[in-house]
Specification:
The protein is of the alpha+beta class and about 280 residues long. About 25% of the residues lie in helices and about 20% in strands. The longest helix is centred in the C-terminal third of the chain and has 20 residues. The mean pLDDT is about 95. It binds zinc ion (ZN).
Length: about 280
């Protein structure tokens, strides 16, 4: 699933590609992708509107229109947004929704697994929508300080650290890739209980979490072996070459040369190094 760095990459690129453009036509090939409203209503509100801005909250994209409505897009497991500068370019087999702009460019929503969605929401109702989602703080926000991280952890002493990092109501945007990478960076075993972490370890974890997320954004995210993530130009993310543990089971640890192990933790495949993660 695309995590914070992948969705942030898409947001940044969409800003450059579609901001200020007018949507002149929409083609909906699979109506269930449009969530909670009829396709007719969706088209009625969206066609003719102009893209005002694009934001990200957790793993969700928010496309603000200039008519008091916003589109909330969740890519879930395999959603992709691909931009084409010209209309006539070939579409993918799994293209379910196409936004056509007045300059003849278009944006395709592809989704092999079909779990993703787009939701039309009045912009003034967005705050309520996100409140109901019970999302934790944004880890890259200025006010997400070490003090704040420590404070949040102190409320969950009996949680295992890696599943907790992935819990969206604890911190928003972190998933299976970056939770594993942060634990390796901080040399912490992913199944450690929060209350067992020493101050130094917590500090290291905070440091790596932020560092890894920033570096992953810089590298336009991760396209792992089984993932469908691509950026808006259809390109894979470059962070894959920088992964230290994710999907590296049975390979040698870059730090201590021991073999990376894979276990199930909270139902999710989790890799770690038994040599240098304590
Ligand atoms: Zn190691």
């Amino acid at each position: 699933m695309p995590e914070l760095p992948e969705v942030e990459t898409i947001k940044n690129q969409l800003k450059a590609k579609i901001k200020s453009k007018t949507i002149k036509k929409i083609e909906v090939k699979l109506s269930k992708i449009v969530k909670d409203t009829s396709v007719v209503f969706f088209k009625k509100k969206v066609i003719g509107s102009k893209i005002k801005n694009i934001e990200r909250r957790a793993k969700l994209l928010i496309i603000h229109l200039n008519n008091g409505y916003s589109l909330v897009v969740h890519l879930k497991l395999s959603g992709q947004l691909i931009y084409y500068p010209k209309l006539e370019q070939k579409k993918e087999k799994y293209t379910h929704l196409i936004y056509y702009f007045s300059d003849n460019s278009c944006l395709c929503y592809n989704d092999l697994r079909q779990f993703g969605y787009v939701k039309l929401i009045k912009t003034i109702d967005l705050e309520k929508f996100f409140q109901q989602k019970d999302l934790g703080p944004e880890p890259l926000a200025k006010n997400f300080t070490f003090k704040k991280f420590k404070e949040l952890l102190s409320k969950r002493p009996n949680s295992k650290i890696k599943p907790l990092l992935m819990n969206q109501s604890f911190i928003a945007g972190i998933g299976n890739i970056y939770a594993q990478e942060a634990c390796w960076g901080a040399q912490i075993l992913p199944f450690r209980l929060v209350k067992s972490l020493k101050e130094k370890e917590t500090e290291k974890l905070y440091h790596y979490l932020i560092k890894i997320l920033k570096l992953a954004i810089k590298n336009k995210g991760t396209t792992a072996a089984d993932a469908h993530y691509v950026d808006v130009q259809g390109r894979a993310g470059n962070y894959k070459s920088k992964l230290k543990v994710y999907q590296r089971q049975n390979k040698r640890c870059f730090r201590c040369q021991q073999k990376i192990k894979r276990i199930k933790l909270g139902g999710r495949g989790t890799c770690y190094c038994p040599g240098c993660q304590k």
